[in-house]
Amino acid sequence: MKIYKTVPLLASLALAIFSLNTAQAAVSESEAAQLGQDLTPLGAIKAGNADGTIPAWEGGITTPPAGFKTGDHHPDPYADDKPLFTITAQNKDQYKDKLTAGHLAMFDTYPDSFKLNVYPSRRSASFPQRIYDATIVNATRARLVDEGNGVSNAIIGIPFPIPSSGEEVIWNHLLRYRGETVGRWIAQAVPTRSGKYTLVKFEDEFDVLYSKPGATFEGLNNIILYFKQKVIAPARLAGAILLAHETLNQVKQPRAAWTYNTGQRRVRRAPNVAYDNPGTASDGMRTSDQFDMFNGAPDRYNWELVGRKEMLVPYNDYKLHSKDVKYDEILTPQHINPDLARYELHRVWVVDATVKADTNHIYSRRTFYIDEDSWQILVVDQYDRRGNLWRVSEGFPINYYDVPTLWSTLEVHTDLQAGRYLAIGLDNESRMYDFNLKRTEKDFTPSALRRDGVR
Hints:
It contains eight helices and 17 strands. It is α+β, with helices and mostly antiparallel strands. The chain has a 13-stranded antiparallel sheet, with helices on both faces. The protein has a two-stranded antiparallel sheet with strand order 1-2. It has a two-stranded antiparallel ribbon with strand order 3-4. The longest helix has 11 residues, at about 130-140.
């Protein structure tokens, strides 16, 4: 697997591996001056690649397709694109330098059904100008603290657009822009090997304090977002609610979480909503820290920055978001329907995380592939405690161009050993995200849970 070659300064930043103790300093003014010039405002290489297979970034999607109205499912702006080629178990070796270990294992595990349809690369990621402006300011101010387990002096934008460590890259994902106060109505399914499933439906609300206009680092008081999730189906689970207050330094101040139990009608603290504890109604198929591809404290891992590479990854997956596609069409046995997934060649940051000797996690190693244009994690390879590849996670993103932001519309966690998978984020048959949700801080308090639970 070849590491992408670029100008000497960028190559040195992309390829260098720094220890925890050398990753504390922000970049210089001269380095930051590249943002918006040779680099995009968020730190990606603006130019295309030498082969012409990755285009230059020209601002991403700046105008929604004709006829789109806020509140609609997002029509595919690239609907006329045709696959350039299809990768199968029979020809995968031709492309192995551009495939993750997880995708190669998927071909070996499902040789007769799994495939990647590869489309022209479209650098669609775009964000509000204020996010770009804040990122440029953060570049020379933001710093890691507490051995990489927290961030200081960053607000609104990406904290480390020119990263020099794995910790900085993962913090870019954790603090990336996804809107401000957002509501979404999604479904989760864990099909059996034969393809049978029961939908679990969620009503999620995010209040991202870090990203709000006028936010200040001091004003955060270490809280970066509020998250509330209510189960609305099936009936046996309906009414349960999870509330979390996510912190910027979870080692100094761990995430605070509470749950509302419908049977007891009580609100309880939930200290286990973290790390490798099972995700809500996941049938043990994902951990709490796999939600949003990775969330929470990074303190259980050593984070190694491998470099920036050209990889075939999920991108512009509007078919998986389409209102014209039914859940039954997506949720096929053993893995999702590959005819509905779109893959493109993009540059990604590769970060390898290994569990620290003095702690534990069910995943002994995780390799992350993070989009350079948006800092969205696109693929994760997860290994069990014996060092065997166990689960492959994919975030299938689209540009929510009415915001705009690039965010996964569906996350899929495939268990190679069990022959099953979990899909979360299904929204084809539900109402669309509300990026203009009206909420106050009082809506995200423990006392609000009981009120929500009896409505």
